[in-house]
Amino acid sequence: MSGYNARMRAVFACILSLFCAAPASAAEPLLGFNYPVWSRDGYGSAAAAASLRALAATGAGWVALTPTLYVKDRRDSAPAPTESTPSDDSLRAAIRAARAAGLQVVLKPHVDLLDGGDRAWLSPRDPARWFAAYRAQILRYAALAHEEGCGLFVVGTELSLLTLPQHWRAWRALIAEVREVYPGPLTFAANWHSAAHVGFWRELDYVGIDGYYPVAAASPRLMRAELDVWALEAEAVAHAAGRPLLFTEIGIASQRGAQRRPWDYRDFGAVDDAVQADYFETFLDVFGRRANFAGMLAWDWEDAPAPPGDKSMNLRGKPALHVLEQVFHAARQPPSVSHAPAAARVSAVMEEARDIAR
User: Fold this and answer.
1) What is the pLDDT of residues 226-284, one digit of tens each?
2) Is 241 left (phi over 0), alpha (psi -120 to 50) or beta?
3) Is residue 341 part of a domain?
4) Where in the sequence is the domain holding 60, given as residue range(s)?
5) 314 neighbors 300 (Cβ within 8 angstroms)
6) Which of 76, 91, 189, 335 is the most buried (most CB within 10 A)?
7) At what angle do helices 88-100 and 127-147 cross, to 10 degrees?
């Protein structure tokens, strides 16, 4: 893993960009974790409440909760809850526990396939029926988000084929209906490879991207060169839309070679905590320099720290979490400078970061 000084450079670059360029409506940078649960009562458990308190202790300001709907296969036209979908009562309990811990909440519904396929390639036989079923679920979640005071709502996650031009009208209609029941900011969490083809960014408040960008190199220096190319593409999408750029997911397994396939959660290589830490560090350094970068939600936070030898995307107990904690703590601007001019705010926060480094 690269050295401590490199991690602090990532902190400084990220803080500089976040405080100079974050949208005026944001009280602070949108920095935190995705916290997925795949059981009916998982979000309502005592373990979940304790996990959310531990998440807040990292310095994160946000948590994304991810209730998941299901289809049988990529051609199924009826997304619906199953016994693996968190109940609304469970979701409400988690939202309240998160807010009690000082976190703001993103409600970020997902759709998964029971046959194990990738949601990006969902292509229902009857798109009108699919959107009608999805609309009913999304409007219910949007109403819940409003009732519980969530700070951001995600209208869809990683549905590449369902965001092709023939479906844009359906998305625009859905977004308009969501705004009638949820008054807060909205985004869509696009796949990294298809964000440029989403045709309804201007109807949303952020360009949201699940940023699993592949890079060939494992060294931070070469990673940076490759991520710079991806950053130009993402920045162009956000600039064209006139919206800030929010990474609704960033994640990578702690396995050798994971930088070449950061979306892959399967067991494919030897344990490598360094590649996970270096990827996060370099990603934040590269994208944090972009003027329209508004923040990121790391994938993923889990109820327990990863055991020794863990190869998953779980960040708890791994060096990558330390990288994120530095960014989170440095970005929490002191109240004494919260209304100062941008340059003074940057100076004060960076000085705080240097104190942490000492």
Assistant:
1) 999 999 999 999 999 999 999 999 999 999 999 999 999 999 999 999 999 999 999 99
2) alpha
3) no
4) 4-333
5) yes
6) 189
7) 40
Q: Specify the pTM.
A: 0.88
Give how many domains the chain has, as a whole number. 1
CATH of the domain at 27: 3.20.20.80
Task: Provide the token pair at 14.
Answer: 């990220």
SS3 state of residue 307: coil
The two structure tokens encoding residue 209 = 């991207």
Buried/exposed code over 168-177 (b: 16+ C-beta within 10 A; e: otherwise): eebbeebbee
- Tell me whether residue 9 is exposed, middle or buried, using C-beta atoms within 10 angstroms of its C-beta: 0 to 12, 13 to 18, 19 or more: middle
Domain membership of residue 128 (yes or no) is yes
pLDDT in tens, 137-151: 999 999 999 999 999
Among 88, 80, 82, 198, which Cα is nearest to 133's? 80
**Closest by CA position to 102, among listed 52, 65, 66, 33:** 52
Tokens of 148: 């519980």
Q: What is the DSSP letter of 17?
A: H
